[in-house]
Amino acid sequence: MQQLARGVAALWLAAFSATVLAQARELPDFTRLVEDQGAAVVNISTTQAVRRAQGGAAPQVPGPGMDDEEVLEFFRRFIPRQPAPGQSPGPGGGGPGRESRSLGSGFIISNDGYILTNAHVVEGGDEINVKLTDKREFKARVIGADKRTDVALIKIDGTGLPVVKFGDPNKLKVGEWVVAIGSPFGFENTVTAGIVSAKGRSLPQENFVPFIQTDVAINPGNSGGPLFNMRGEVIGVNSQIYSRTGGFMGLSFAIPADVALDIQKQLREKGRVARGRIGVVIQEVTRDLATSFGLDKARGALVNSVEKGSPADKAGVEATDIIVSFDGKAVESSSDLPRLVGSTRPGSTSTLEVWRKGATKKLSLTVGELQEERVAANTPARSKPQAEVPANRLGIVVTELSAEQKKALSLTSGLIVTDVRPDSKADVRKGDVLLTVVHKGQHTELKSVEQFNKLLSGLDKSAVLTLQVRRGESVAFVTISGLGDKG
Fold first, then answer.
1. Of these residues, 45, 102, 120, 252, which one is catalytic?
2. Is 120 a catalytic residue?
3. Which sign does the torsion angle of CA 308, 310, 314, 320 carry?
4. Closest alpha carbon to 289 in 304, 275, 274, 278
5. How far is CA 462 from the centre of its chain?
6. Active-site option among 223, 252, 292, 305
7. Which tens digit of pLDDT belongs to each residue from 440-483?
8. Closest of 274, 40, 260 to residue 150, by C-alpha
9. Is 296 a catalytic residue?
10. Could you say which of 45, 102, 105, 150 is catalytic?
11. Sign of torsion, CA 16 18 23 29?
């Protein structure tokens, strides 16, 4: 019996050892990739004259003593700024004209010296220096930079330079191994590896890039460096990290290679990037909004407002439309629309599919060009509201717009909120103007208090409805889920 037990144990140990060895053999080997592609990755440093403001006071920045309530999680561009010799504030420290240096990464895309990096790496640099792995150093000039995507194209004078090859980021799979090469904290040609954590990520204030999220260790100085797949192809440009401290915390984001290549092509040909626009303000479609609008599921981009004279206006797009596809490509999330429209060349003809009052409708429009952002006009002054009326079923008090208010707001109808009770079910404020109510796909324009209250009284307590609300110059949709018992 003991011999049998020993035999079973030996067999189990052999099987376990074979499994471990097999798994070890399956782990990726990055050596060939680094040998083949590492030479095309460069270290970038910029020199900038420090122009000190009067008074000499340095701006305050978040410090380690601040708690999490004061310093929330935030996205940080990762580029370390290091003082140049003589810049330290000790005895003999430099005076006016001191210089600061920034470190980042980049990679060569043509053997005559074109290099891709991040726009924030070269921003404000009076002098740009590029260092290769063979210790050669070059002065570089900026061909063009695009802040919206954080892509920059620079050029050094060289020939026969090593270059990277590109892959298709659309073929990436979540869980796939990827490798980053860069200069974190100035340590040149540092190699880190990880997997693709997610694709098509939207980040705050970054509407035009469907980021690749990875868990590759990225730190200050990796900015602008390449992200490789296991075939040694560049599939992204490392751009951002998500961090409380400024260091790596497992969340890294890269600009997809196809986006970066399109941007660099425009920068090389024109020195600028032309983006499409259609002239709509949109918001995300939640499950409750989808229910209110009679849509099968939460998808698309809900149009809050349409700019007068814009391509969307000329094509017949209306506020309360839900854009579900653009040029045959599904708009699953509102963040998809700016990317699709932005990547469309101005002047081209595109097709929109919208969900309008319970049915789909196709519209054709000519895409315009996105200009620099303009400051919105001041909110028109409102005259004094009319006398109060009792709160309705939503716990808000509304009155009809006066003739002066309609003229000031360029409206023909609507109800202004004059009071919001503490137990109100509606996320609105005093001064908001209610324009329409949407319930089960039916849109009702609000013209009188009596009409609004009658509509509310006819709904059951579990009803889901949506209010179209104008606040200042902005229009948004507010969903109310469950009205409770009738008053």
1. 120
2. yes
3. negative
4. 304
5. 35
6. 223
7. 888 888 988 888 888 887 787 778 888 888 887 788 888 887 77
8. 260
9. no
10. 150
11. positive
